[in-house]
Write a sequence for this structure.
């Protein structure tokens, strides 16, 4: 099928948009490190959009700003760090007379942690902004979750759930939005075999009930149809955006937990190829739905789809970088905390060796997943 997006046809446009989204999210992450480094006086050698060979560059002040050939990501090279990209670039007018006090290592421990944390925090801020745009378009329709129908299987009705009940908790997890309820069930396969406890508020009785549900063996459904009410309060759209952000954070954490529990395997991971293909499909489906509803003039369906993707991937990138692994921001924070506790610095060559080995392992894993996604993509063509 040929899809139309803002007047440009074909899946190639979806693929280009998906790449631009991924690049934008990663660059925004690096902007967090950039602004934090500048705030603490750390010298920034280069700020790049893209990876690989340098295409264009310009030095402004002490920092070289560049665009590189591979439009997937970017980086912020700080003085005192190992930066193969900056060191190997040819023809760039890099500042070379840095003062030792401008080094990343010259910062105090808490400053180094804030610089490391700034990238993930910028991702969370970007996600909140994307979700706020969704609520501005769709209205604050992401508040408390209400049961609106019971069926087609009678599990919930027989267990005592009633139409009009407000869903509060699932197995003790707060239900922020309708997405958070469904996401919890999807990321906890044990609920299909062992059941789960649903806590509801019944407005008609002003009472709270805990109801145990065992999904139907064949359909894995309990027969609850629900939808989010409008969020109320002095700032309903901000409240709704905050609820959606918490939902996205918990979805990402639950996905990681699935891997740790063994409920998901490496085959369930996605590389840039897989993510790009999925993003393109989501945008194309939104465009198709928009065209069918004769809403092509305002473009809100595509915008909402793009912002949903931006929020989910941005949150996932932020959380992944907070994992306490070498070569990630969380690993840098962990090392810094250890140095602050022991009052001893880890030798730079040791840290670089550990980071390098971990990066090699991550690249091998990413390469394997990319091959898997590339094969799946070609088979689907």
């Amino acid at each position: 099928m040929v899809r139309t997006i803002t007047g440009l046809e074909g899946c190639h446009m979806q693929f280009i948009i998906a790449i631009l989204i991924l690049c934008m999210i990663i660059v925004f992450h690096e902007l967090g490190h950039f602004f934090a480094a500048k705030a603490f006086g750390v010298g920034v050698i280069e700020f790049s959009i893209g990876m690989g060979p340098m295409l264009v560059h310009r030095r402004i002040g002490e920092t070289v700003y560049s665009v590189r050939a591979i439009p997937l990501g970017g980086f912020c090279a700080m003085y005192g760090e190992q930066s193969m990209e900056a060191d190997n670039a040819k023809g760039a007018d890099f500042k070379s007379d840095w003062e030792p006090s401008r080094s990343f290592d010259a910062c105090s421990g808490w400053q180094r942690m804030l610089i490391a944390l700034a990238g993930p925090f910028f991702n969370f801020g970007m996600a909140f902004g994307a979700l706020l745009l969704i609520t501005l378009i769709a209205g604050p329709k992401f508040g408390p979750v209400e049961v609106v129908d019971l069926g087609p299987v009678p599990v919930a009705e027989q267990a005592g759930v009633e139409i009009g009940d407000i869903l509060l908790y699932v197995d003790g997890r707060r239900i922020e939005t309708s997405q958070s309820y469904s996401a919890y069930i999807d990321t906890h396969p044990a609920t299909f075999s062992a059941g789960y406890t649903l806590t509801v508020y019944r407005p008609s009785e002003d009472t709270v009930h805990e109801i145990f549900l065992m999904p139907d063996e064949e359909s894995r459904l309990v027969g609850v149809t629900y939808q989010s009410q409008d969020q109320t309060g002095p700032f309903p759209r901000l409240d709704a955006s905050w609820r959606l952000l918490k939902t996205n954070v918990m979805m990402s954490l639950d996905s990681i937990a699935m891997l740790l529990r063994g409920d998901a395997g490496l085959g369930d991971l996605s590389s840039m190829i897989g993510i790009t293909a999925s993003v393109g499909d989501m945008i194309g489906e939104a465009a198709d739905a928009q065209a069918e509803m004769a809403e092509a003039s305002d473009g809100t369906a595509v915008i909402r789809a793009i912002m949903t993707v931006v929020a989910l991937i941005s949150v996932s990138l932020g959380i992944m970088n907070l994992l306490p692994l070498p070569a990630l921001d969380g690993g840098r924070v962990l090392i810094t905390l250890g140095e602050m506790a022991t009052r001893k610095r880890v030798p730079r060559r040791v840290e670089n060796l550990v980071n390098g080995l971990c990066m090699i392992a991550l690249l091998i894993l990413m390469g394997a997943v990319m091959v898997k996604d590339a094969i799946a993509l070609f088979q689907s063509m």
